[in-house]
Specification:
Elements: H1 131-137, E1 163-171, E2 174-181
Antiparallel strand pairs: 1-2
């Protein structure tokens, strides 16, 4: 494998591999790689690093355009929040119009698309020798930083309004419907 110092645009027909060991013990954030784009043109779009997988064959048991993985060894841990992927967005006074979300999910379905055996916007699973610990102690999602109140994202109340419908979810091999109400609880 060749080791190189790059300048300017670079293309590799055989891919890139970066292996770095950091032994710092300070409180500064360590980044193996940083990609920073500054957009200053009004009406510009994009500004991203694109990871694209093109598949035109029946591939194997999994495919990913991007994978983020953290492996904690026997004595490894994070004293705060540990995550394999973080989507972070900072709003400003200028974000007064538009739609903002730290995570956008797009499931494109052109005219000839098939949904396979099971298609969903989010796939969540747990595996390993101690799945029981996750079953007994984990929650499906953890929402922090909001305050319950009328008109807020979280509203406390036991009186529910008129049912609007349901949102289909799958647990194991069974579909369930999470009820949706047309008015907030009181």
């Amino acid at each position: 494998m060749a080791t190189s110092t790059f300048s300017g645009p670079v293309v590799s027909q055989n891919g890139f591999q970066t292996t770095v060991t950091d032994t710092s013990t300070g409180s500064a954030t360590y980044n193996v790689s940083t990609t920073e784009a500054t957009m200053t043109g009004a009406g510009g779009t994009g500004g991203r690093t694109l990871f694209k997988l093109n598949a035109n064959a029946a591939l194997g048991s999994f495919t990913n355009a991007l994978k983020a993985e953290v492996v904690y060894g026997a004595s490894g841990r994070t004293t705060g929040l540990g995550s394999a992927f973080v989507a972070e967005m900072t709003l400003s006074a200028g974000t007064s119009a538009g739609t903002y979300a730290p995570l956008e999910l797009e499931l494109n379905a052109p005219a000839s698309a098939s949904t396979g055996t099971m298609t969903s916007f989010i796939y969540a699973s747990t595996q390993g020798a101690n799945v029981a610990a996750v079953d007994d102690n984990a929650v499906f999602f953890n929402l922090q930083g909001v305050t319950a109140g009328a008109g807020h994202m979280v509203v406390a109340g036991t009186t529910l309004g008129t049912a609007y419908g349901g949102l289909r979810v799958r647990v194991g091999s069974t579909n369930y419907w999470v009820p949706l109400y047309a008015a907030e609880p009181t």
